[in-house]
Amino acid sequence: MSAISTPTPDNQTQRMIDDMIAAEARYLSQRATEEECACKDGMFPSRTPANRRNFLFAAGSSAGAAAATLLAGSAIAQQTPAGAKNFDVPADPTKEQGRAVAADGGYGTRSQFETEARMRFPTANENTSWSFTPLDKTLGNLTPSGLHFERHHGGIPTIDPAKHLLFVHGMVDGPHKYTMADLKRFPSVTRKYFIECSGNGLTEWNKPTLKTVQGTHGLLSTSEWTGVQFSTIAREVGLKDGGAWVLAEGADAAVMTRSIPMEKMLKDAILAYGQNGEAIRPEQGYPLRLLLPGYEGNTHIKWLRRLEVSDKPFMTREETSKYTDLLANGKARQFSFDMEAKSVITFPSGEMKLPGPGFYNISGLAWSGRGRVQSVDVSTDGGTTWVPARIESVPEPICTVRFSLPWMWNGQAAVLQSRCTDETGYIQPTLKQLIAIRGSNGPFGSIYHLNAIQSWGVAADGSVTNVHA
Amino acid sequence: MFTHKLIHAAALIGAIAFTQAASSQVARFGFGSTATPEELSKFFSIPPDGRGLPPGSGNATKGAQIYAGACAACHGDKLEGNPAKGIGGDKLLGGRDTLASKAPVKTVESYWPYATTLFDYVKRAMPFNAPGSLSDDDVYSVVAYILSEAKIIKPSETIDAKSLPKVAMPNKDGFESDPRPELQLYH
Fold first, then answer.
1. H or E, element range at A420
2. Dist. CA A363–CA A353, nearest whole Å
3. Strands A245-250 and A220-229
4. Which of the 8 DSSP states describes residue A428?
5. Is A174 helix (H, G, I), strand (E, B) or coil?
6. What is the pTM of this model?
7. Residue B38: DSSP 8-state
8. Chain A 359-418, CB below 8 Å of chain B: which residues?
């Protein structure tokens, strides 16, 4: 055994945590300035449009190069928020004509006053990194395509759909290739599903680390997906006996590969080309991605170019050295595909501030990779008592639901929690329960599949923080 | 009633037409085209039994040279990794006997269960700035170098399609299949 095998702390991992905390702090300080608000009241922004716009222009010219790099995509670093265009604001919009119809070239932009943006995890390398959906700012149930979280291992490729091919081969009767036009001729399905990265919340195993729900839960997004079922393609190529696994391969620089059980592929896998009514965004796998409802995000191979049917899994790098869950006893769980029932309160959540005692509509998201959300309970006393929440959207299989609970805050310290029960009867566990099973080794514990109940502490002054309770 | 019958008849005719248009055995849409062996030959994915490993071979001596030119900038001269901004290359060595400790260090040496995965990944996605640019001989050599530096093989060993699947990685028995849902949560 070599000298190098002496146990040493994983400094690289600790550095990553420290960088993340620092990056989030910078992101928050920028955002607070943006909202021109003395308090941290994310929920009641005092917006004065004209001033705000002027401020953004000023910020655009003065923002330093460092801020621009760290906050790429954030409104503060540019003249206009990402995805928007700036227009003059008339004193009275009823006294003059507005903009001409379709003057936007036929594809709309969001309002210049909306600044929600993804936040990138400060990995050293910007091509293999991830970004978080701003769950504290999104409304309803679906995630706007431009705010869908990202995880890339070799950047975002630019692919000409006219040249893209999907190969299906291995243990099949007749290996085939399909153009995008071929795939679109097959009968399609359209379904709403969430996708969650199994690393969602990885910083939160041992102590409350990130401040906002964007940081703690933002690797979750929900879209309506359209595409061909794998089962349809399976009939076309003919599956041979013994075909038990399917390798999916992407056309990015990582040539990402994962082995998927055939049972799952035939149950509900979709070769998706549509997202929220239009073609899938490049960051989400344009022109084609694999959709595996309820499985960890990494398996939903983007830029899908190949499916190889096999009798055994291939043991790719991602499914051995990366997306496996190392337990306290030194053994690691493999093929831990399911994203289990989980929920989080998005309002109020970390870094917000309640202006004073009174009525608040607690709101959040709940989801399960094993089926429909059956019910959601909310506690305002750290889990001592629970009240059923109101479900605001129709529960669909493997899709988020928006929940809410009216709450009269009496001005005293409180701990807010939510707890999801899915249709299998599985109840979202506490962090203590999870750590008792999986351990808490290393700065990130067992890293993946943290689906514990989240706690937000509300102090007497109304400030909301990430706590472990 | 009349309308209902008409629709029924139309549906029946449609079904017959579809059956006739389809092949004699199984109804298939028939979109897409046959993938030829030539087209499929550019793809690879190497499972632990080594199926699909290409011809060629390599050794640690050659691998050291290739590593210095193509890998060291990101993974370090001593395979210790490079966390610098814009790089972030993984540490490849060390960490044996740390997996059950309070500070587990996951590397090729300590964590990866199959040597075939190393070949597959290097050929697939490395070096980061020019993915897939190494020849098969070069990949075999780099793999031999990393395994040799990790004291998993001897520096003199030749690595090829026959020998690579036989390499026993230190953590080959370190994995178990996902037991969730965890029964402890149903106490």
1. strand A414-422
2. 15
3. unpaired
4. P
5. coil
6. 0.89
7. H
8. none
For residue B175, give the nearest of A1, A314, A324 by CB distance.
A324
Sequence spans of domains, chain B: 1-30, 44-166
Residue type, B68: A
CB contact under 8 A, B103 and A433: no
Question: For residue A135, which amino acid is it?
Answer: L
Output the pLDDT for position A56.
33
Could you give the CA distance from residue B128 to residue A155 in angstroms, rounded to a whole number?
A: 11
Q: Which CATH class is domain B44-166?
A: mainly alpha
- Note whether A255 contacts B: Cβ–Cβ < 8 A: yes
Select the residue from B29, B41, B119, B123 to test the A interface by mutation, using most A Cβ atoms within 10 A.
B29
In the block, residue with structure tokens 């990866």: B112
Question: Is-contact A341 A371, C-beta < 8 A?
Answer: no
Instruction: Determine contact: A125 vs chain B, CB below 8 A.
Output: yes
Between chains, do B120 and A314 touch, taking CB under 8 Å as contact? yes
All CATH 2.60.40.650 domain ranges of chain A, comma separated, are 342-467
**Are A321 and B102 within 8 A, CB to CB?**
no
Q: Any CB–CB contact under 8 A between A310 and chain B?
A: yes
Model ipTM value: 0.88
Domain A342-467 fold: Immunoglobulin-like (2.60.40)
B81, B96 contact by CB (below 8 A) = no
3-state secondary structure of A379: strand
Chain B CB contacts of A321 below 8 Å: 106, 108, 111-112, 117
* Residue numbers in B near A427 (CB within 8 A): 185
Rounded CA-CA distance A238/A405 in Å is: 51
Please answer yes or no on whether A4 and B94 come within 8 Å at the CB atom: yes
Pairing status of strand B33-34 against strand A176-179: antiparallel
Q: How far apart are CA A202 and CA A214, in angstroms?
A: 13
| C-alpha distance from B160 to closest chain A C-alpha (Å) | 18
In one letter, which amino acid is B91? Answer: K
Chain B partners within 8 Å of A433 (Cβ): 184-185
The CATH 3.90.420.10 domain(s) of chain A lie at: 165-333
Spatial CA neighbour of A298 closest among A287, A289, A309, A306: A289
Please write the tens of the pLDDT for every residue from A97-143. Answer: 999 999 999 999 999 999 999 999 988 888 999 999 999 999 999 99
Q: Cα separation of A419 and B51, whole Å? A: 47
Task: pLDDT tens for chain A, 469 residues: list them.
Answer: 333 433 344 566 777 778 788 888 887 877 765 554 434 444 543 333 333 333 333 333 333 333 333 444 444 444 799 999 999 999 999 999 999 999 999 999 999 999 999 999 988 888 999 999 999 999 999 999 999 999 999 999 999 999 999 999 999 999 999 999 999 999 999 999 999 999 999 999 999 999 999 999 999 999 999 999 999 999 999 999 999 999 999 999 999 999 999 999 999 999 999 999 999 999 999 999 999 999 999 999 999 999 999 999 999 999 999 999 999 999 999 999 999 999 999 999 999 999 999 999 999 999 999 999 999 999 999 999 999 999 999 999 999 999 999 999 999 999 999 999 999 999 999 999 999 999 998 888 899 999 999 999 999 999 999 999 9
Superfamily of domain A165-333: Oxidoreductase, molybdopterin-binding domain (3.90.420.10)
State the smallest CA–CA distance between residue B187 and chain A in angstroms: 11
Name which of A236, A247, A310 is nearest B29 (Cβ-Cβ). Answer: A236
Say if residues A400 and A222 touch (Cβ distance below 8 Å).
yes
